Amino acid sequence: MERVSAGESGYFLVYRNQPLTQPSPDIERIVILVHGLEREGDSNFRTAIRAAQETGEMDRTLVIAPQFHAKDGKCKDKLERGEIAFACQGWSDGIGTKAARFSSFAAMDGLVQMVASRELFPALKEVVIAGHSAGGQFVQRYAAANRIDGRLAVPIRYIAANPSSYLYLESWRPVQNAGAHCRDFNRYKYGLDGLTSYVAESGAVAIRNQYPHRDVTYLLGELDTTDEHHMDTTCPAKVQGPNRRQRGLSYFERLRLTFHSEHKMITVPGCGHSADCMFRSENGVRAVFGQ
């Protein structure tokens, strides 16, 4: 593990396969894999390492897995001295709270800006930010809201695998009359109303304009059709569809038709709600490593 500075706020931890600021002429791709609801950074790091090894990309890849620790609400992580605590119910959305003010999106900004360096890695071609489940929610919303894409030495690609819900850019939902079923269906993190924290600084207009044109791939498990594994069953999530797979299909199609999105959607046969299955599958490897 390595500490990544977040200025005066402190630092957060990441797993990595080599020191982040160690120059290397061999690194061509940086893969950042964001953990899920249980904040199992070590497990996601192992998944990313195995995928890189199995595809022969290990020597050319800097693998990073952030660890967004939290200790408020139901989250009781132990923090090191000086380590930042992220919001238990907000780290996957980039939102801070009174107990944990620092945004996980700001933390990702700092991490990406630090490593996306041609001085450190002269052969670097791209940064890939991927995540599964709650990590997929993080990636989808970060792709929509961040303000560093297009300002780096290399492009960013985003891969959102099996998220429970999506950030919609409009009030339409697959369930008709969504507002009658759910008053807050269009508030952030589900829509662009009521933005706060990091996403408010980006603003609804900028998010709506930039997100359809960012390099986003949705990975959907063919068998991820149940409400197991902590699927979001709140009202704003239910009006997006009955399960993760259907929610992803509906969102992708609507974004393509309405906003002329340039995004991609890939189904992963034989996979349910498993990060290891998704990212080590043939289609998952193709999405992450461009093979």
Layout of helices and strands, plus pairs?
Blueprint: E1 2-5, E2 11-16, E3 29-34, H1 41-54, E4 61-67, H2 104-115, E5 126-132, H3 134-145, E6 156-161, H4 178-181, H5 197-202, H6 204-210, E7 216-221, H7 235-238, H8 244-259, E8 264-268, H9 275-280, H10 282-289
Parallel strand pairs: 3-4, 3-5, 5-6, 6-7, 7-8
Antiparallel strand pairs: 1-2, 2-4
Structure explained in plain terms:
The chain contains ten helices and eight strands. The protein has a single domain (2-289), classed as Rossmann fold. The mean pLDDT is 96. The radius of gyration is 18 Å and the shape is globular. The protein is an alpha/beta fold.
Q: For the residues shown, what is the average pLDDT?
A: 96
Question: Could you tell me the number of beta strands?
Answer: 8
Under CATH, the homologous superfamily reads Alpha/Beta hydrolase fold, catalytic domain
Please bin the fraction of helical residues.
25-40%
Distance between the termini: 28 Å
Which CATH class applies here? Alpha Beta
Largest sheet: 8 strands, mixed
